Amino acid sequence: MTRGRFITLEGGEGAGKSTQRAALATALRAGGLEVVETREPGGSDGAEAIRDLLLTGGADRWSPRAEALLFAAARADHLERTIRPALDRGAWVLSDRFLDSSRAYQGAGELTDADILALHRIGSADFFPDRTLVLMLPETEAEARAKARDGESTDRIGGRDRAFHRRVADVFARLANEEPARVRAIDASGEAGLVTARLLDALADLLP
Ligand code: TYD
Q1: Pairwise CA distance, residues 177 & 185, whole Å
Q2: Ligand 1: does its nearest atom lie under 6 Å from the Cβ of 43?
Q3: 19-68: per-residue pLDDT in tens?
Q4: Which of 97, 111, 124 to mutate to test the pocket of ligand 1 (most atoms within 8 A of CB)?
Q5: Domains parsed from the chain with CATH numbers
Q6: DSSP assignment of 105-119
Q7: Is 46 in the pocket of ligand 1 (CB under 6 A)?
Q8: What is the torsion angle, in degrees rounded to the nearest 10, for the CA atoms of residue 166, residue 108, residue 106 and residue 148?
Q9: Residue 1: pLDDT above 80?
Q10: Is the CB of residue 80 below 6 angstroms from any atom belonging to ligand 1?
């Protein structure tokens, strides 16, 4: 039995990650793979409970350090309870967000990228995806899509200001440049089917 592959989808709000996760899963299943779809924060009972703590409440509910630790704790549980067991039985796992979201959202302010990676070593023993697909969309298009989806009801983190989301986008672009073997920037504009084809292309070398 060969181990499955762990694929993560990343990007800012409104980039189309959940739509593309579903489309990618359908395409991979059609090729005969078992696919488990999951998301962060969440993806296991414990991590879903932590998700509520993270995404609801006032903007200042958590300090930056407490917030980063909660994401790392949720990730540790998600990995142990959901991701590893699926990979071990040969399934592919597609996760809507993972570690790189913490690097982008928590690692470019009071905490550094090195801090987030240190938390990942402690929480998740340095477990990295086999491939990370970053959906890239021009800012105006991403804002319009996020607004169409969420209206004015954004969550604690999604509702932060434009400068914050710009910084997040910059980190994702930097990760794609610095870790090209793992992280691929994918153009998320245009018709959904075209984007799915681009994503499949970026996984071609991993397919059995
Ligand atoms: P979600 O409703 O899943 O938003 P989206 O559809 O944009 O993925 O909410 C997840 C929010 O949590 C999103 O604003 C990004 C944020 N987040 C972090 O700040 N750090 C993390 O490590 C993760 C996984 C998510």
Answers
A1: 9
A2: no
A3: 999 999 999 999 999 999 999 999 999 999 999 999 999 999 999 999 99
A4: 97
A5: 6-202 (3.40.50.300)
A6: HTTTTTS-HHHHHHH
A7: no
A8: 0
A9: no
A10: no
